[in-house]
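Much of our argument rests on the idea that a fold can be written as discrete symbols. Part of our work consisted of pairing the sequence of a single chain with a tokenised description of its backbone. No coordinates are needed to read the tokens, only the vocabulary itself. The record that follows shows the chain in one-letter code together with its fold in token form.
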Amino acid sequence: MCIGLLGPNGSGKTTTIRMLCGLMPPTSGSIAVVGVDAVQDPEAVRRRIGYMSQRFGLYHDLSVQENFRFYSSLYGLRGAERDARARELFSLLGLDTRLDQLAGTLSGGWKQKLSLACAIAHHPELVFLDEPTAGVDPAARRRFWELIHELAGSGMTILVTTHYMDEAERCDRLAFLSRGSLIGLGTPQEITTQFGMETVEDVFIALQERDEGVIA
């Protein structure tokens, strides 16, 4: 399943993801992720999820395969298991032709694919993708979403934030945040019905204008 987390800038999307990943505690309440208490046992949560941040967390002076080896080792992959997973993901993502290329010389689209490979090296149950297609060209965006649906079809749950409404429409379910609160949850059709608007983009624009104070 693919879930879109949407909302204007400052609505709390990245903060929410960081709390769900166990990277920061909530100010109140509780959080359970894949059946684990993210406040009491954040390390257990991080072993079962993948996280791809807005900024590519790659080592630019390391090659594609060196980056993958480093990040996969953090998830406990070693030896033959790691090599087999590398071959599988590099083939899926087309990175097998760029193994020795330094990450710093990759285009945005290729950095995106390498970051994804590192995030899902350990077969996580749930993957968080924070604006993964920001700043990449339309062809790379389209291919990336094909990959997202391939992964979701394999049984992986993916939560993605995006400001592209054509991407939001491709999600199975949407969650809308505004000023730190969840104000809408459902399929794209259910969301537009809930807010009485024609498209998901109309909902997003209305919330953005409200949060910016354009609408009282």
